[in-house]
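Annex B. Sample input.
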Amino acid sequence: MKTSAYAATDANTPLQPFSFERRELRADDVAIDILYCGVCHTDLHMARNDWGFSVYPLVPGHEIVGRVSAIGSAVSRFKAGDAVAIGTIVDSCMQCDQCRRNEEQMCRKGVTITYNGQDRVTGEITHGGYADHIIAREDFVLRVPDGLDLARAAPLLCAGITTYSPLRTWNVGPGSNVGVIGLGGLGHLAVKFASALGAHVTVITRSEGKVDTAHELGANAVLLSTSEEQMAASAFAFDVIIDTVPYEHDLGPYINLLDVDGTLVIAGSLVDTPKFNNLPLISGRRRIAGTPSGGIRQTQEMLDFCARKNILPECEMIAMADIATAFDRLERGDVRYRFVIDMALQAA
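Annex B, continued. Sample output.
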């Protein structure tokens, strides 16, 4: 399938138009016309090879929403015209213990990521959603529920599930006290999810200017991490803290905020962590944990939950041709809170 896209050709050149051939439709494949694709901070890191394993040309995009254009002969769950989505992974072994537990993102043999991955059949490098079409295995295609705004749903496929999954893993619900560090693309969704699950939610931030916004998003309280008095008064206050800060920072002050058996969850931040005193960790039987995205079943659960609760990310729509400007703004933190590429828009 002839596909038009935007791609990074090296680590230093802005994304530019790129054409390539998608693979032929297999029996268990779904072909999708892409309508919207979220712009994740991971896309910026990968385009610039910040983690050292990018393969060029690289077509980013793993927050994909579109409509089915064709199906393989063995596909039973979808038909042409269905509203569908694809997240961060497009294949796994489907046989290991983790895959059988519907935790495909933990596949023992390694997942095939939506872009910069390796197709399990052909070995070709996968290309993502900064494109007009995509083909994926039926098992990794998600149904977009009726009533969920297609234009704003895309960031749920990475930012959404990355924050929803730990809230479910650590059984957040009524009676839970949840802290959210940072109020960006991930953080604002963590606030919405935790609030909708019935928790008491506190945004932990360095900025007094985010107090009103935090409450608008559903937070019950705001804790200024720059205030020694507020931090001291909040010792042992939280059952779970979701840390969404994407840069290197000291975890030490936040450990003291955890209650006995509390958990500080690092949500997708691939950075070095400065050393900290582990005495509060040991004395409070506290935990520091990590979380990737979720499995396909849980991601579908999240989309259905969002439709029921009317949860959507706050988005700014852009044209594909404006992606270089969006990347520059993303690097400066100049977005509230997620960019979404609308394939129908023309460049500004």
